[in-house]
Design brief:
mainly beta, six-stranded antiparallel beta sheet, five-stranded antiparallel beta sheet, 1 helix
Length: 170
């Protein structure tokens, strides 16, 4: 990769980026830490198209938000806190609640199967819910369902080869 950004995930916008692949490498090979609790792996690898490198990223010499070509994002020592199937509420035409389905926490042994469903689908949200911690949360839309993936990590490395067009973020 020609460009490499380390621990600058907040300067990369993944909203509307298409997932080409998402996988865990070395599941269970990382020692338990005192906290947080969840499924551990050596790496979580995310390959996307359509990510935006913001103007404040150290690798962006254009000082304007730019699309990157295919991007590889690797989270070191991820601890997946939860993968949720997002719930929903149905209302009738008179705005009366008809049905409410709560979020459903998925079992750890389902994570990789769910990540396989992410291929060719889009990230609806990607961001750091707690600015001072190395944690990340993303929401991925798959057909009629949405999945929320929340995890902690030690380090994140994003790499790409080329900048593309200017991103209109307005």
């Amino acid at each position: 990769m020609k460009f490499k950004s380390t621990n600058e995930i907040e300067t990369i916008q993944l909203r509307d980026a298409q997932i080409k692949e998402m996988k865990l490498v070395g599941v269970g090979e990382v020692e338990e830490a005192a906290s947080p609790k969840g499924l551990r792996a050596r790496w979580m690898e995310l390959y996307v198209e359509g990510a935006v490198v913001k103007d404040n990223n150290s690798q962006n010499e254009y000082y304007t938000d730019k699309y990157a070509d295919q991007m590889e994002i690797r989270f070191k020592n991820p601890v997946i806190e939860a993968v949720l199937l997002e719930g929903h509420k149905y209302y009738d035409a008179n705005d009366n609640l008809v049905e409410e389905v709560p979020d459903q926490k998925l079992a750890e042994d389902e994570y990789e199967k769910i990540f396989g469903k992410f291929k060719e689908n889009y990230i609806f949200y990607g961001g750091k819910p707690e600015a001072d911690k190395k944690c990340y949360q993303m929401i991925v839309d798959v057909d009629e369902d949405s999945y929320i993936v929340s995890f902690y990590y030690d380090k994140v490395i994003a790499g790409w080869n080329h900048f593309l067009n200017k991103a209109n973020m307005g």
